[in-house]
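We close this part of the discussion by returning to an individual protein. The sequence in question and its structure tokens are set out directly beneath this paragraph:
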Amino acid sequence: MPLLHAEHLSKTYHDGRKRLPVLRDASLAVYPGVSIALLGQSGSGKSTLLNILGGLERPDSGTLDIAGQTVAQLEEPELTRFRRKTIGYIYQLFNLIPTLSVAENIDLPLELLGLQHAERQRRIEHWLNAVGLSARASDYVDRLSGGEQQRIAIARALAPQPRLILADEPTGNLDAQTGRQVLELLFELTRESERSLILVTHSQVVAQNADRVLTLHEGRIVQGDSSQAW
């Protein structure tokens, strides 16, 4: 049974004078333990699709089910709680809070989940060790390199134990060597934890690390379909 099942997702924006279709009839299924790379040029609809799959935007039409939940049926407060528990989002620009320490950045989503202090500390220690940054727990994130910040962003996304991980160009602001290290870490942690990963990229090289590749062109999946997503 797929963790994520989307059918005929479409999204249109309005610029005041005309309608701009951004996503057109996109369908895919993602099974646990599988990583998918979503390829496409700038403006192809990759980020829009990722935002819809992450519950950050709502489609104009189509259906989306994640972990047995029909996402469109959720009101905003319930959708927020669902995202916190089920979806981990890794941003290209890290989105870490510079006034918090490394450990505090990882702790924040755990606190929002209502976890007890002891369990939060256990998860912080586990994931800092998993990304190789246990020694930086008390440092402020603005003292870290770009690669270290992205590794902390990965730890923050995985610490709540989400079933679905969404990554938007996670190596876009990193040098080639650091990017390779971050990708290896991300795919390894995804495989080991039996989570599902959808990674947006414009790089064929990055996509080669994934189990499956889907390509978006002008809002449509033109290479690969839902039958190829597992």
Observations:
- The first strand starts at residue 4 and ends at 14.
- The chain has one domain: 4-228.
